[in-house]
Amino acid sequence: MSISKRFLAVFEYLSAFVFGGVMYGALETVFRGYTHPSMLVTGGICFAGLYAIDKHCRRSLLFRALCGAALITAAEFAAGCICNIWLGWDVWDYSRFSMNLMGQICLQFSVLWGFLSIPAYMCAGMLRGALGVKRAYSDVSASSASLSSSDASSEPPEESP
Fold first, then answer.
1. Which tens digits make up the pLDDT trace of 83-124?
2. In the predicted model, is pLDDT for residue 11 greater than 80?
3. What are phi and psi for residue 3, nearest 5 degrees?
4. Rounded Cα–Cα distance for residues 38 and 8 (Å)
5. d(Cα 32, Cα 86) in Å, to the nearest integer?
6. Is residue 144 a part of any domain in this protein?
7. Do the Cβ atoms of 20 and 93 come closer than 8 Å?
């Protein structure tokens, strides 16, 4: 990979990181009334991951939403273990929610992250467009490949003369 391509890739994911951090901080401030700097970093990491999933994964939106929920939940658990348990910052505590793990993650928020990843994927697509970056695969070739394979399987076999 040439230096210019590496620079562009770093710029692309750094842009996704900054966008995600700012957007998550803004959303948390609107809904919670405040945010913590650690959440800007965690939000940036999560959005950069969602950006990569959206760029490289050609699976269904439901599958990508499940991947997004898993990614964000894992990042939240790691951030919670570092910020809340190890550093003692008490940024959040899910202990009052049922089905929580060490008060750092819970099922209710994991489901929320899955739903929130859907508009995040839309934002990833808009960011990719603004940066002039294409998907790592072609939607047209994927749909035409599936179309041609379905056409081939639906045609009756040719009869020999």
1. 999 999 999 999 999 999 999 999 999 999 999 999 999 999
2. yes
3. -60, -40
4. 26
5. 23
6. no
7. no
- Residue 135 Cα to chain centre, angstroms: 14
Confirm whether 150 is domain-assigned. Answer: no
Expressed as residue numbers, the domain containing 13 is 8-132
Q: Would you place residue 139 in the very low, low, confident or very high pLDDT band (cuts 50, 70, 90)? A: low
Task: Provide the β-strand partners of residue 106.
Answer: 100
The answer to whether residue 40 sits within a structural domain is yes
Distance CA 149, CA 19 (A): 39
- To which residue do tokens 């910052």 refer? 89
- Give the mean pLDDT of the chain: 89
Residue 43 lies in a domain: yes
pTM: 0.83
Give 99-151 as a DSSP string: SEETTTEEHHHHHHHHHHHHHHHHHHHHHHHHHTPPPSS-HHHHHHHHHHHHH
CA distance 79 to 60: 28
Report pLDDT for 153: 42
Number of domains in the chain: 1
pLDDT band at 2 (very low <50, low <70, confident <90, very high): confident
